[in-house]
Design goal:
443 residues, alpha+beta, Rossmann fold, Dna Ligase, domain 1, 26% strand, globular, binds adenosine monophosphate, binds glycine
Length: 443
């Protein structure tokens, strides 16, 4: 196991932080950390994102996700105390293993803990061994055996690439022929690359979905307020799965009783199971849940903040974020203090034409300053860069996250809509039903 989270009862007054990752989630983290009384200097590996660049200085070395050596030297030079890792792919590539030292904390697990997300097959086996409620599923290493299994079943199934696929490697199928086609796309056409070395075929579950994110230092758990992500591209949950087209918080679909149940039957058992595997986990434990008639079941685990869940949660968190993340990464989570803004937040993702299959980029964006001036609205840059004329252009699939706070969910939705209407780029895609039809809060 790597040098790890020795419980530190004292820490420096001001912490130098390196933020890794370049999307809307990281812009939201940078903005929130920049307001932390505990922050010394903030650096970022991805200042090509103008939103992040507004808060963080660049590292003086290129970002190379295959080789952490230069970043390690940078951390020494810049006296970095805490590395906050946004994307799962960096955790799966061993950034935690490479950069964590006795005096330098990393918020996020090592490769062994990241497997909970980077191998759905491993996670399935772990869940089964720990009796964690999840969809019945089988893991296959060949298309032939997967197809044989599909043909033996009459109920609809879900076909999943086991590895990391940016939220797109899950194909929900109505018919056996669709499932066989899904296996072909994943294992033969390699649509998701190496992520398709193994597939999981699962029973298709029905129910409302919610995301439950918890901070953990491996021992203590702090469950963040509820939120819900909308994963399908189009209104009414139609179209293909995406990384997430919007989110809102709180998400009353998960009652207090269910929350306690998930803590008891999912979060605590998974941490116990990780410990049995000698995995020392810290960071975010994210359970993607579906609320079935038989109770909440786990669809997936992630090992980092959700994107766009993070963007919708952070504006509601009243805390010194740098202190909270450092406490989580150093075994002091029980000392962290977090309060919640009672207001509702809604995050609408503005995506490029062609997203998620083949996003078209390089399009001029207008209206960002106007949108950001709507009261209670944050505009987070996801796939945005500066154009040659100094203006903003699209640079990714998910381009912007418009996050609005309101006293009611309806008010937050209306403000997000008002701000979205001010922004234009050619081919923009968005959903208009983020947070619509959410159940009323219980009690
Ligand atoms: P995942 O990345 O595993 O969370 O899957 C992405 C999305 O696919 C989920 O948010 C669900 O909408 C859908 N999904 C995944 N697994 C299942 C399942 N067993 N039954 C129904 N829908 C599923
Ligand atoms: N929004 C889903 C995810 O971050 O995986």
């Amino acid at each position: 196991m790597a040098q790890r989270k020795k419980k530190q009862s004292r820490r420096k007054e001001k912490l130098n932080v390196l933020l890794v990752g370049g999307g809307g989630r990281e812009h939201a983290l940078a903005q929130k950390m920049s307001k932390s009384p505990s922050l010394g200097k903030l650096y970022s590996t991805h200042v090509g994102n103008p939103g992040i660049a507004a808060h963080a200085k660049p590292t003086d070395c290129p970002y190379d996700p295959k080789n952490w050596y230069r970043l390690e030297r940078f951390c020494e030079r810049a006296e970095i105390d805490l590395i906050v890792v946004g994307p799962e792919v960096d955790l799966a590539n061993g950034i935690g293993d490479a950069l964590r030292t006795k005096d330098r904390a990393v918020f996020g697990p090592d490769i062994d803990g990241a497997r909970l997300e980077s191998s759905k097959a491993w996670a399935k086996v772990l869940m089964r061994a720990a009796s964690i409620p999840t969809a019945e599923g089988r893991v296959f290493k060949t298309a032939e055996s997967a197809n044989e299994y599909i043909e033996s079943r009459t109920e609809p199934v879900v076909v999943k690439a086991s590895g990391l696929a940016a939220g797109k490697g899950v194909l929900v199928c109505d018919k056996g022929s669709e499932a066989i086609d899904a296996v072909r796309r994943i294992m033969h056409d390699r649509e998701f690359g190496d992520a398709g070395d193994e597939v999981i075929i699962e029973e298709r579950l029905h129910g409302e979905e919610v995301s439950l994110l918890a901070l953990t230092d491996g021992g203590s758990i702090y469950v963040l307020d509820t939120c819900k992500d909308h994963k399908r591209l189009l209104d009414g949950d139609a179209g293909p799965n995406t990384g997430g087209m919007g989110a809102y918080s709180p998400a009353p679909a998960l009652t207090d009783k269910q929350l306690a149940e998930v803590q008891r039957h999912v979060l605590i058992p998974v941490l116990d199971a990780l410990r049995r595997e000698e995995v020392d986990f810290c960071g975010v434990l994210y359970a993607g849940l579906i609320l079935t008639h038989g109770g909440p079941k786990v669809l997936e685990f992630n090992v980092r903040f959700g994107d766009p869940e993070c963007q919708t949660l952070l504006p509601r968190m009243k805390c010194d974020l740098v202190d909270v993340l450092h406490a989580t990464a150093t075994g002091r989570l029980d000392e962290a203090s977090i309060d919640w803004d009672k207001r509702h937040s809604v995050c609408v993702v503005l995506a490029s034409e062609g997203y998620p299959a083949k996003p078209i980029t390089g399009r001029k964006i207008t209206g960002l300053a106007e949108a950001a001036s709507v009261s209670g609205v944050n505009v987070f840059h996801a796939g945005v860069k500066r154009g040659e004329d100094g203006g903003y252009v699209t640079a990714g699939g998910r381009v912007l996250n418009i996050v609005a706070l309101g006293d009611t969910l309806e008010e937050a939705r209306a403000k997000a809509d008002e701000a979205c209407a001010m922004i234009e780029f050619e081919g923009m895609q968005r959903r208009h039903d983020i947070g619509a039809g959410a159940p009323a809060p219980a009690g």
